[in-house]
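Priority: medium. Attachment 1 of 2:
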């Protein structure tokens, strides 16, 4: 198959003309044209290889032959919809159920994380008969109108907060109101949710749900303090609401030790609804909502059919099953523990050398390295983080930033990422931060041969 139809510059011009400008490119100052990929490596039109540190969708590795083979074979045989009986959907639901607590046993298959979260919202509202939603500050839950409304990361830049949305502080013990020196940050942050519920009740409002990523990724690769989810779930249940865990970035073994990130909270914590997406189909659009029989029963009782044209079709489910097989066969959770642990250790060592690294946090292959201008004030080093990402690209490494100030270097590579990849990326970061610190020391404003940093 031809990997390129147009010369790169022509592709760029056509894209500028034909594709909405709000759909942004990575590295917009100098976009990369990727024409093929394998495992954790991307290749541009000249065959140059890039190490991919950001594609958490291509979970088991780009173009994995076990996935493409299954997809092709099922497409060749049949693709219909969920109104016909088919074994793939039930087998897939059964396999997913085996990874989840028993309470979560009823599945809805959809096409994207946004569809999953929108359906979760409908389920919560139908079950509780309440309208209001509590969300975490800086959260992102999807691009549909309903989800922009519950995504402070987006609505703060748009019309603002709806009266039925209540924003709880992000339980971030590095930047937040309670920090690592607090004796019980989990309880303290959970109490902020309790206060929000009380305030909402005073206004006569009723809580349908608490929505949170199990590890807030857009919020900056945050790890919840112990006990937070459990206490929040208690408060939300007392208010008649349900706990929705958004596992769209964090599910399918990314944290290594567990299949789902919410399981890090312990066996006695179980959300009422879990949404999953990105890694499910290794790039094929498939997503899902799982919930309890009671919640699903209340949704069924409204008498309105739930039909989703593409959701749960035989091809999607065959691909989903193949992804589960590869996670097991290649021990990708074990790899996340080993390589993620190694990477985190290397970054912690780097933190001792470079004052710019304020914090290193994460679990498995979900790691954040936060850059700060000053370790005391923890002022985010946004420009330095952007510079690091630009420079890593010159070293053929694709990386991104996240967090409220885009100061967190975010590692979420395909799960086949190796120790050698980790060594390579950390060596490059070390060099770049050394260059940056030299520039800062000399205060000369630019690195010879490199684009000057705006404020350095
Ligand atoms: C945490 C989280 N939830 C939901 C979504 C929406 O998923 P999708 O883009 O598949 O609609 C995203 C996408 O970035 C996400 O990161």
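Attachment 2 of 2:
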């Amino acid at each position: 198959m031809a990997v390129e139809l147009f010369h790169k510059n022509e592709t760029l011009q056509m894209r500028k003309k034909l594709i909405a400008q709000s759909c942004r490119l990575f590295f917009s100052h100098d976009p990369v044209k990727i024409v093929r990929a394998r495992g954790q490596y991307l290749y541009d039109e000249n065959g140059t290889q890039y190490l991919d540190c950001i594609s958490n969708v291509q979970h088991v590795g780009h173009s994995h032959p076990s996935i493409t083979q299954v997809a092709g074979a099922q497409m060749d045989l049949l693709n219909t919809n969920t109104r016909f009986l088919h074994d793939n959907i039930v087998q897939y639901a059964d396999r997913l159920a085996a990874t989840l607590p028993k309470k979560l046993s009823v599945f809805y298959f959809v096409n994207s994380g946004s569809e999953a979260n929108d359906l979760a919202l409908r389920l919560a509202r139908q079950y509780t008969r309440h309208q209001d939603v509590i969300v975490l500050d800086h959260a992102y839950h999807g691009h549909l109108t309903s989800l922009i409304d519950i995504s402070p990361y987006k609505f703060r830049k748009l019309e603002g907060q709806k009266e039925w949305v209540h924003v709880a502080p992000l339980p971030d013990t590095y930047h937040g109101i309670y920090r690592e020196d607090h004796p019980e940050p989990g309880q303290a942050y959970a109490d902020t949710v309790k206060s929000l519920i009380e305030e909402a009740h005073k206004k006569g409002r009723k809580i349908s749900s608490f929505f949170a990523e199990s590890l807030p990724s857009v919020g900056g690769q945050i790890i919840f303090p112990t006990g937070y989810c459990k206490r929040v779930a208690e408060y939300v249940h007392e208010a008649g609401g349900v706990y929705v865990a958004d596992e769209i970035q964090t599910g399918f073994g990314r944290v290594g030790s567990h299949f789902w990130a919410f399981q890090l909270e312990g066996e006695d914590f179980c959300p009422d609804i879990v949404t999953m997406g990105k890694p499910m189909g290794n790039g094929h659009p498939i997503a899902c909502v799982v919930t309890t029989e009671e919640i699903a029963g209340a949704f069924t009782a409204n008498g309105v059919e739930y039909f989703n044209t593409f959701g749960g079709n035989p091809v999607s489910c065959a691909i989903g099953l193949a992804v589960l097989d590869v996670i097991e066969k290649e021990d990708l959770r074990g790899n996340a523990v080993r390589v993620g642990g190694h990477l985190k250790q290397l970054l912690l060592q780097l933190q001792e050398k470079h004052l710019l690294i304020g914090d290193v946090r994460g679990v498995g292959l979900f790691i954040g390295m936060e850059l700060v201008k000053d370790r005391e004030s923890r002022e985010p080093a946004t420009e330095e983080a952007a510079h690091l990402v630009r420079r890593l690209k010159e070293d053929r490494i694709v990386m991104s930033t996240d967090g409220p100030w885009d100061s967190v270097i975010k590692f979420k590579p395909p799960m086949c990422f190796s120790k050698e990849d980790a060594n390579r990326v950390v060596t490059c970061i070390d060099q770049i931060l050394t260059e940056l610190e030299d520039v800062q020391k000399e205060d000369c404003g630019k690195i010879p041969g490199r684009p000057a940093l705006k404020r350095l």
